[in-house]
């Protein structure tokens, strides 16, 4: 399956999870639901993939810890195995640290890739929006309309801006409904 097709399937899975669970759950609930949805679609992935963090000192390179990518989805394109980083959140809004996390995972996976592997230069950040305490909405239909999942494609070199105008333009694709 081409990378663009697997990305479409990941987004479809996120929307399916949202329609069924809505907002307000912990990130681990959405993680488990996304894993189940991807399995149903026959998508190959690794959950909680360890991503080593290296420090390059003056006398060598040292592994100083590791992060864990929520999902690394695999597909094949041009006879190479291609990884797509998917990071899941359950927060009121997407934050700069979430974007940075996706970028770091892409960069780290590129360092550890094998000869026949590639890492897609864009990752997917999916935020299953957690309603703030100020907004009390009980009806499921209203909740789905007020808090759709935020889905952003994150380029490994994208810089995050806090300006309201750029935030609005970045969020527009997340509000589009799939045809």
Automatic annotation (TrEMBL):
Enumerate the residue ranges of region (Disordered). 158-179
InterPro entries, from UniProt?
A: GxxExxY (IPR026350), tRNA_endonuc-like_dom_sf (IPR011856)
List, alphabetically, the Pfam families matched: PDDEXK_3
Write down the Gene3D superfamilies for this protein, in alphabetical order: 3.40.1350.10
Gene Ontology MF annotations: nucleic acid binding
Which NCBIfam families does this UniProt record tie to the protein?
Answer: GxxExxY
Q: What is this protein called?
A: Hypothetical conserved protein
Name its species: uncultured prokaryote
Q: What is the lineage of its organism?
A: unclassified sequences, environmental samples
